[in-house]
Amino acid sequence: MPITAEQQAQIDEERARSQPTRRAVAPGMEEHLYTAYPVLDHGFVRVIDYMGDDAAITQAARVSYGKGTKSVSNDEGLIRYLMRHWHSTPFEMCEIKLHVKLPVFVARQWIRHRTANVNEYSARYSILDREFYIPAPEHLAAQSVVNNQGRGELLEGAEAARVLDYLKADSARAYDHYEEMISDEGQAGLARELARMNLPANIYTQWYWKVDLHNLFHFLRLRADAHAQYEIRVYAEEICKLVADWVPFAYTAFEDYRLGGATLSDRALDCVRRMLAGEEVTQESSGMSKGEWREFRATLDGPAEA
Fold first, then answer.
1. Looking at residues 206-216, what average pLDDT do you find?
2. Nearest-CA neighbor of 216 among 260, 250, 256, 262?
3. Which long-range contacts (CB under 8 A, 24 or more apart) does 161-167 make?
4. Known catalytic residues?
5. Most buried among 44, 115, 216, 282, by the most CB within 10 A?
6. Radius of gyration in angstroms for the set of CA atoms belonging to the chain, rounded to a whole number
7. Is 196 annotated as a binding residue?
């Protein structure tokens, strides 16, 4: 259960309350406000607030560029122009505030994006819930033999069962000791700020995360990528759905130029030109390293068929 009955009651109350406003609203995002969308086994993402829409992006761009944008006939065309030419400032006019519940080890990856405002649940002040991320069997994989930070073949049978037993038992034991250390039943009890250090990285935390659209797109470009770790990628994919309804023109341009696009080096472009001219280009004649060539060919060939 990603949210408690008490949290759901609060969400229902917030969604039932509305008031007139003169500020710009995005109908798609209004439908998402406050709703908690489940992620992983106990996590969720929900929109607390947002500012701006597609029109806010083009409004800011036209203030900045003035007559230079008159050749762009519509807002969608202008947004695609801005995305195509890496004009980031207009996208900073939109902001979103999310409430996210996520495992601590995912939060440690997420916080590497230092361009947002974050306020996290305090384990110095409050007691963390007994909720841990335990991977589904289809996400238990061995270490990749070609990527030091990736996964390889799935674990199966007795080995998979052994790993799951360890994860569940270690999580439960650590939390039992946490509860015992902070207990005040006839003892002083260890301070919460010290007792928390015994908890595993798969325990859930929560935070409010506020970010502008430009930096959100940067986050999504990296974390919604197929090479991102599964546990953070599923959060990014859920956020993508929200952004698509919030700023549909901007998200479509982002999907086209960033998620679905590719950046080629000068050397790679030279190889493409030589190939188009009919030359057979190999790794040895390309001037690229084996790793560069492998990535270049993957870009040209597209994703491998399952």
1. 98
2. 250
3. 164/134, 164/135, 164/137, 164/140, 167/132, 167/134, 167/135, 167/202
4. 223
5. 216
6. 24
7. yes
Q: Is 130 annotated as a binding residue?
A: no
What tokens appear for 43 in the block?
């996590």
Q: Is 173 annotated as a binding residue?
A: no
Does 80 show up as a binding residue in the annotation? Answer: no
Q: Residue 220: count other Cβ atoms within 10 Å of its Cβ.
A: 22
121 is in an annotated binding site: yes
Under 8 Å CB-to-CB from 299, ≥6 apart: which residues?
262, 264, 268
For the whole model, what pTM was predicted? 0.89
pLDDT tens for each residue of 109-158:
999 999 999 999 998 888 999 999 999 988 888 766 666 666 667 888 88
* Token representation of residue 231: 């546990």
**Structure token pair of residue 236:** 């990014």
Q: 99 - beta bridge partners? A: 46, 208
Q: How far out from the chain centre does Cα 219 lie? A: 6
3-state secondary structure labels for all residues of 52-115:
CCHHHHHHHHHHHHHHHHCCCCCHHHHHHHHHHCCCCHHHHHCEEEEEEEEEHHHHHHHCCCCC
SS3 300: helix
Q: How far apart are CA 167 and CA 175, in angstroms?
A: 12
